[in-house]
Write a structure and sequence with these properties.
Layout lengths: L10 H8 L3 H9 L6 H14 L3 H9 L4 E8 L6 H15 L5 E8 L4 H14 L3 E4 L4 H13 L4 E4 L10 E4 L2 H13 L6 E7 L11 H14 L4 E7 L7 H11 L5 E3 L9 H6 L6 E5 L3 H9 L4 E4 L2 H18 L7 E3 L3 E3 L8
Parallel strand pairs: 1-2, 1-3, 3-4, 4-5, 5-11, 6-7, 6-8, 8-9, 9-10
Antiparallel strand pairs: 10-12
Helix pairs in contact: 1-2, 1-3, 5-13, 6-7, 8-9
């Protein structure tokens, strides 16, 4: 039996030796959630070999410095994508509270770039141990990250990323590949001649474009495999839901032959009223993310498939992995942590 000498083993050491996340170790130790017997055995073996004591470890951590993290994400309404992400961050912060990790979540308006700037300045004044954010406003995110680097504050990305920046880690799907997967789902049954790509109107300055990498993956796939297919773009305003039906009726009235429809953001449910009012034989509709409203449309049969992943778990793992890096003062072995992509249809919806 091999034991660590000259230092007290931590829960992070156990996680590394067992080949699991710190959250999984926590669930095994305290009996939270569902963990397979095989994983339990690996964790218990690591605990024994490292001579790890949860109570001793927690008491030692209690006397150490606190780690304050700041999270900067968009505002949301109930049922929105960012509510799911917000819940994942809060769950991670609760599970890590005994390890002196505190989280402050700042929210900004995706329609207002100035609100992002205000919140980012507030975070800089807090001087946190680390910052997690997404990248809706590319120019302003870049400027903020440069200030964080100048202050020696590490940062991580969720949901999307800016490759040129010196971020500690990214946690999320590969957005380009997820867009390509959506395009494959849209076209794997019938070859398209025309496609309707529905997009959201966002900020008036047109700086917010969080789905650009996914959209590029989608359009590149179509161009590679269906070079004669024309992609039409139609914008709808999520802040004016009463206008969406008339916008879509006008668009499809001008393009009556379109049978392939996709939205690369998380709100394909916004098409629901139009799809119900105008049923069409052979139409295929693809969306992204397992929001309750999207799942309801999938169950109803007005959309055909969703490309998704467990959204709260993505946020949970992002914070816990990032915290591990900060506490242990080291970079992760891999900068990009790509989560697997799930395909939901009516056939597997009930088991997800």
């Amino acid at each position: 039996m091999q034991k660590i000498s000259n230092k007290t083993a931590t829960i992070f050491d156990v996680a590394e030796k067992a080949g699991v996340s710190r959250g999984t170790v926590d669930r095994v130790i305290y009996g939270r959630g569902r963990v397979s017997q095989q994983t339990r055995d690996k964790v218990h073996k690591a605990i024994e070999e490292l001579d790890y004591s949860p109570n001793t470890n927690a008491s030692k951590l209690a006397s150490r410095k606190e780690y304050a993290f700041s999270c900067l994400i968009p505002e949301f309404r109930k049922g929105d994508y960012w509510e799911e992400m917000n819940n994942g961050f809060l769950a991670a912060a609760r599970d890590y509270s005994s390890y002196n990790i505190n989280l402050t979540i700042h929210h900004y308006d995706q329609q207002d770039v100035d609100s992002f700037i205000r919140e980012s300045e507030a975070i800089l004044s807090e001087k946190p141990a680390g910052v997690i954010m997404n990248t809706v406003f590319r120019e302003e995110v870049t400027a903020f990250c440069k200030k964080l680097e100048g202050s020696g504050i590490p940062y991580a990305f969720v949901d999307n990323k800016i490759d040129e920046l010196d971020y500690t880690l990214y946690y999320g799907v590969d957005p380009y590949k997820s867009g390509a997967l959506g395009a494959w789902l849209l076209t794997n049954r019938t070859d398209p001649e025309e496609i309707a790509l529905v997009r959201l109107l966002r900020d008036p300055s047109h700086k917010a474009d969080p789905n650009r990498p996914r959209r590029h993956g989608f359009s590149d796939y179509i161009e590679d495999f269906f070079p004669k297919c024309k992609i039409h773009t139609v914008f709808i305003d999520p802040e004016k839901p009463g206008s969406i039906l008339s916008t879509l009726e006008s668009f499809f009235g001008q393009h009556p032959g379109i049978r392939h429809i996709a939205m690369t953001n998380s709100r394909v449910y916004l098409l629901g009223e139009y799809l119900r009012k105008h049923p069409s034989e052979g139409r295929i509709v693809i969306g992204f993310d397992d929001l309750d409203k999207n799942l309801a449309c999938l169950k109803e049969g007005i959309i055909d498939a969703l490309v998704t992943r467990h959204i709260p778990l993505q946020a949970y793992n992002a914070l816990t992995t990032f915290a591990d890096c900060i506490i242990r003062n080291r970079r992760p072995a891999h900068k990009n942590h790509f989560v697997h992509m799930d395909i939901l249809t009516q056939m597997n919806l009930d088991n997800y």
